[in-house]
């Protein structure tokens, strides 16, 4: 604490551009606010604040008021803590504004009920005061008790909602769950967190998006009951992961993003599209589709996607594992489809097929041959062997390429490339 006081005392009149403060137990919250006040008065534009206070001290630790009173110069604001709360503020009556804030990252912040018992008021007010906000990252916000939540911003371009990332308090029991790091890639500063989500146990019943200029959406959370959605026609990149899909209907969410150009789907969402969407989505503008695989999840939704993506150019599989069923049509060859099954592969316009984490098992090799046999417009297939595969004799890149070169192809001009992360292209 004395060290921070000495640092801030040096060149007390000189401007500060970037200020990062990580506080553990034993640091007085009033001292934290004093440090922030001194930094903000010197023009800080990039602020990271992570407060890991014990749960035993108080139910929730309020954010330092100086952020709201002197945050006019902030351009980037990252806040995390696991025990922080926005409410209980006299300041939260609208008498603050962030006129320059463009990037806001909230990790494990409590935005729960206010004194009137309503839901989401503080969050909506916060967004309304960020008048030029371009990027919003929400990790593990405590909003599961809300009846509804709204993300509304006319200037927002990038939105990330991830219900799993979590920065714990200093409670020892939480750290026993195992820690990773809130990396610089996600806007953090090496602070430990655990993927055990104590806040994000479910989503609000209704989640609405009013973001007409949104370009990039990464949504990973439990499925809400309803999604009033207006993301405008500008959305170009979407990554979706939905947890517990069997509990809810995600039709509005899927149908509301049909103008997307780049789409990344988890195996859970593939099942949602097949089983829990009342209307088949049509993605006329989709050019790049990326799909994660899971041996416990089915591919019934894959034929629906391939048939309804008339502009698809690139298809990426993160592994080829999925549960064997009879509902995949000709999207795979795990069970021979009936003659009446829709021809999702033969009609698919994809030109580039990329397969990651390839292990060259008999099943994987057979499925690749199936793709080559039915994708009529395919120009390039790229196979990337998983990191350990080159140690196995059966996974030699040259041998894999040689075996697949002998497979019949619907597209005679298709070029096959087998890549190993360690050895390069063969």
From TrEMBL:
Coiled coil: none annotated. InterPro entries: FBD (IPR006566), FBL60-like (IPR055294), LRR_dom_sf (IPR032675), LRR_FXL15/At3g58940/PEG3-like (IPR055411). Pfam families: LRR_At5g56370. It comes from the Eukaryota. Residues 343-419 form the FBD domain. This is F-box/LRR-repeat protein. It comes from Cardamine amara subsp. amara.
